[in-house]
Design a protein that fits this description.
Extracellular protein, 230 residues, WxL_dom
Length: 230
């Protein structure tokens, strides 16, 4: 009888010892899981100031293939620096008959775009602006209204930056700088494409004159890039 009691007591002590060891092991495991290590990396600003080649707005992983309405304009602006306008399309509109105005005509470009690249490390943002001029021929200066329509913003190949914002797809005021795209702080990094004449609303030109004279009329769109949102 005494031997049985001794065995029972020993078995109980053994179970308590095993439970204590198991709890200690769990405590140590939990303590190891709660530990932290550090991961560090140094990022330095790029020193690449070379010109950025234009890319295909339909597939930004490919070079710009050109536009039949803007023949020969494929190489880009050649601008160098950390914040650049890399490419600007020339817009061409459907010919219209001379008659009584106003009259509206649509752009015929298939790959019209403006390409911007921000390689700065500051993330301070930028603003893309455009200043339209009047359209003139040898015979007449037109009063015109340009509307960008349902333009689209596309990121360059592999660009994971937050997108800038379209702030004007309506009427552009001639003779002044119109804000078109604004990149707030920490947005619009890398390469971005403003693709025109896409979607449900084409890029349009409205001629406001009542009397129209036949001829070829030309004007300019002066695109500029400021180094901060405005």
């Amino acid at each position: 009888m005494t031997m049985v009691k001794g065995l029972s007591l020993a078995s109980g002590l053994l179970m308590i010892l095993l439970a204590t060891l198991l709890l200690n092991s769990l405590d140590r495991t939990t303590g190891q899981a709660a530990s932290r290590s550090q991961v560090q990396v140094g990022l330095t600003p790029t020193d690449d100031n070379g010109a950025v080649a234009p890319v295909d707005p339909d597939d930004p992983s490919k070079p710009y293939p050109g536009d039949s309405a803007d023949a020969g304009n494929v190489t880009g602006t050649g601008s160098r620096g950390q914040l650049t306008i890399d490419y600007i399309s020339n817009l061409k509109f459907d010919a219209t008959t001379t008659g009584q105005g106003p009259v509206t005509t649509n752009a015929i470009n298939q790959r019209a775009m403006i390409q911007v690249t921000d390689r700065r490390s500051t993330g301070s943002g930028w603003t893309l602006q455009v200043t339209p001029s009047p359209l003139r021929s040898r015979q007449q200066t037109l009063s015109t209204t340009l509307s960008l329509g349902s333009a689209q913003l596309r990121a360059g190949d592999g660009n994971a930056s937050a997108a800038p914002t379209m702030v004007n797809t309506g009427t552009l005021t001639p003779g002044i700088a119109n804000n078109v795209v604004v990149a707030d702080r920490q947005t619009g990094l890398g390469t971005w494409l403003l693709v025109l004449n896409r979607g449900s609303k084409p890029t349009t030109l409205t001629i406001n004159n009542q009397r129209l004279t036949a001829g070829d009329y030309t004007g300019t769109l002066a695109w500029s890039l400021t180094n901060a949102p405005s």
